[in-house]
Amino acid sequence: MERKLPKDFYWGGSVSSFQTEGHRNEGGKGLCVYDVRPMNPEFSDWNDAIDEYTRYDEDIALMKGMGFNFYRFSICWSRIIPNGTLDEPVNEEGVKFYSDLIDKLLAAGIEPMITLVHFDMPYHLVKEYNGFASRYVVDCFERFAKVCFERYKDKVEYWLTFNEINCIDFSGWVAAGIPNQNPQTIADAAKNQLIASAKSVITLHNINPNNKVGNMIGYGIKYPNTCHPNDILKTWEEANEDYFYCDVQARGYYPRYKLKEYERNGVVFSLNDKEKEILKSGTVDFISFSYYMSNCISADPKVAPNQSGNMSFGVKNPYLKASAWGWQIDPKGLRIALNYLYDRYQKPLMVVENGLGAQDEVDENNKIHDTYRIDYLRDHILAMEEAVRIDGVELWGYTSWGCIDLVSASTGEMHKRYGFVYVNYQDDCSGNGERIRKDSFYWYKKVISSQGRDLK
What we know:
The protein is α/β, with parallel strands linked by helices. Helices cover about 40% and strands about 15% of the residues. The two termini are about 20 Å apart.
């Protein structure tokens, strides 16, 4: 049987506003949490990013040159409503910036997908209200979402509410603006974010029933380190930490395992009838997720954890290679992930982040030969194709992360590059921002034009 993905499959890339736009003090924009996040002085400044704010025409042309028909980006809340509050005016200059960007994408034949909050909520809401720990911020988000939906409803069909919403469990300040990782604070903020997400789904469906809203989780397959029952149970427990948010957003109710966890941990939790109805009525239309790696889980405290790089969890898998940052490379795990998620929710899926962070070198001919990235992406695209063709998974699209180099969110590094296009900015903010096509640029163009048939 011929190997290919569906004719209407979406191919493209994915970025966030704070990692690309720069110009944080321009265009009426207010501060977001990343604008005040402490930076290693050796690394890049969010104020510069890759200057997407003024160079998006150039980058859209590059995306069109690769054959993109889909592009996922985020709207910066504080560029639309500077402090994020209920009573301040909408920043029309910010609205126009995104409107112009969307128009340019559509003119290039590229369908936009918008993430409403990608780790960059307004700093004012964090400083004054402790982010989503406050019920007031739910109302603020609902207003922000409604403004975006009303302004762009006829231009944008696909929306995501919160990027990697499950990251609140280990990085609450970034993911939800909360002041600490206390279990009660996390539970309160999670409830508020889930209510906010459901209300935004209801709002968009009322404004334009043809538009589709998805959730987005950070997802990685977890394997038991051994076949010992304790490892199996521990793996199931840790997997539920990822599924919980998706369970609520896709099914419309809190799962019993989470309620029992709250009970064991002394977390005070309740949902009134109105809140239950909101969650039930505001389920998402599709599931989207990031996939970079897998991890092994051990219940044995004597087993050493994987400490080879940032964002590396669990125990090192001896059967897998790892990136320079210690992320274990597991394309087969993507096929497993697609099957797990589709079997659990029976909703269409989208892989909206996947890629290899690596240190690319520009040679004497101004070329970047990133065969390692091509190898990584080839194997993951093949795994997707097998999940569709062999397993019957309903997969709508694939947007690789950081399709044009950007500043790393987890480390602030510029030299941790993901893109098909090299951006000449360095960790010390030097460089002229020149865009250079990598070898992977031409390879991905071939993959898209062949609908995934030509992966050589």
